[in-house]
């Protein structure tokens, strides 16, 4: 199949485009969220950068939507309406925002575009209304067992921790910094020291590293800290588990399903997590033992082959139910999906998870 999708969530896309299809990623001269293309990533040759306006609309077999405004963009540029005369599926990456658990999904009033939630927690907490739903849990391209744990510090990967604040558990970092020094990786960490008051010896900002360098440097930390309160399921957490790192995680959202107790420590009690952090920092062998358990759990549940097989089934179902172009009886419900489009469509419903 020839599948159109935008490069929105890098880590998720990294797994998705390793399947057996042809993947078309819109590119613009200035890049940005609507034209990032491959962004220099080492992806298979089956991942092609395309100029959307020059694309043959009839050559596309399906579109994978990740932002509600993408449906209107496809219709405007290609003249084919997702869910009406172009097979489409919507991937919901994020936890709901607003009046949880009563938050109605922006595509909840239509039936033509199924919603694929990336976690069971998301499907449970979003009110998906009339829309068909399915859960396809994350898959990770295994980076291998790289853990050394040679540095007695906690590694944290979080994007925009200052802006996102309590969502990412930024306010908890000073408490963890008293248990062990922190190395913080990710985009938008400027001002983190000032925002948290953590002194330089206890906080090192590593910034946004390339994936291979991130894995290498993160693996040197004694344990991985996942302080996020309200996120779908940070892919960095799953990557850390694949690397063989023991993990310390808040038992919130999908983390409670993803992290078994033997993989480190998972709790809503911050003091319990701090005690475990000190234990792991002071006992490298115990840290290594729990890290191996974390890797085993991640490989079992979040392997790439299972992820791609699940998506193959969804895409096959889309192809089998391919709508006829020009079908009038589906126009009304299909248009309902497009009414939620626009740059502010989700401003009250959710905040993009940039991990």
- Tally of helical segments: 13
SS strand fraction: 15-25%
CATH architecture of the largest domain: 3-Layer(aba) Sandwich
* Head-to-tail CA distance between termini: 28 Å
Model description:
- The chain is α/β, with parallel strands linked by helices and 355 residues long.
- The chain folds into two domains: 2-139 and 304-338, Rossmann fold (3-Layer(aba) Sandwich), CATH 3.40.50; 151-301, Glycogen Phosphorylase B (Rossmann fold, 3-Layer(aba) Sandwich).
- Helices cover 32% and strands 16% of the residues.
- It has helices spanning 10-16, 69-78, 120-125, 161-164, 173-177, 192-196, 211-218, 235-243, 255-258, 270-282, 284-301, 304-320, 331-338, and strands at residues 2-5, 22-26, 47-50, 62-65, 88-92, 115-117, 133-135, 151-157, 182-185, 203-207, 221-226, 247-250, 264-267.
- Strands 3-2-1-4-5-6-7 form a seven-stranded parallel sheet. Strands 10-9-8-11-12-13 form a six-stranded parallel sheet, sandwiched between helices.
- The longest helix is centred in the last third of the chain and has 18 residues, at 284-301.
- The two termini are 28 Å apart.
- Residues 207-296 form the Glycosyl transferase family domain.
- GO terms for molecular function: glycosyltransferase activity.
- Residues 322-355 are annotated as: Disordered.
């Amino acid at each position: 199949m020839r599948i159109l999708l935008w490069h929105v969530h890098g880590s998720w896309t990294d797994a998705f485009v390793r399947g057996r299809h042809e993947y078309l990623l819109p590119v613009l001269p200035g890049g940005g969220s609507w034209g990032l293309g491959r962004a220099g990533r080492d992806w298979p040759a089956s991942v092609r950068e395309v100029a959307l306006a020059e694309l043959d609309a009839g050559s596309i077999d399906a579109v994978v939507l990740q932002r509600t405004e993408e449906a209107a963009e496809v219709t405007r540029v290609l003249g084919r309406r997702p869910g009406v005369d172009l097979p489409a599926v919507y991937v919901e990456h994020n936890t709901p925002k607003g009046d949880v658990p009563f938050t109605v999904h922006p595509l909840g009033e239509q039936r033509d575009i199924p919603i694929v939630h990336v976690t069971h927690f998301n499907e449970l907490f979003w009110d998906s209304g009339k829309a068909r739903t399915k859960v396809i849990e994350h898959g990770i391209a295994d980076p291998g067992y790289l853990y050394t744990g040679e540095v007695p510090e906690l590694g944290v990967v979080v994007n925009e921790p200052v802006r996102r604040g309590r969502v990412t558990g930024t306010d908890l970092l000073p408490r963890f910094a008293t248990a062990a020094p922190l190395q913080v990786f990710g985009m938008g960490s400027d001002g983190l020291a000032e925002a948290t008051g953590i002194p330089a010896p206890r906080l090192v900002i590593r910034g946004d590293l390339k994936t291979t360098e991130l894995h290498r440097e993160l693996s040197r930390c004694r344990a991985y800290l996942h302080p996020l309160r309200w996120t779908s399921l940070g892919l960095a957490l799953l990557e850390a588990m694949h690397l063989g790192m023991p993990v310390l995680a808040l038992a919130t959202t999908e983390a409670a399903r993803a992290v078994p107790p033997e993989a480190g420590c998972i709790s809503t009690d911050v003091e319990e997590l701090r005690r475990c952090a000190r234990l792991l920092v002071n006992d490298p062998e115990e840290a290594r033992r729990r890290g191996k358990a974390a890797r085993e759990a991640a490989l079992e549940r979040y392997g790439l082959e299972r992820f791609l097989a699940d998506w193959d089934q969804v895409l096959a179902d889309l192809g089998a139910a391919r709508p006829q172009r020009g079908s009038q009886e589906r126009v009304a419900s299909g248009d309902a999906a497009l009414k939620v489009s626009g740059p502010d469509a989700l401003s009250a419903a959710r905040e993009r998870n940039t991990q």
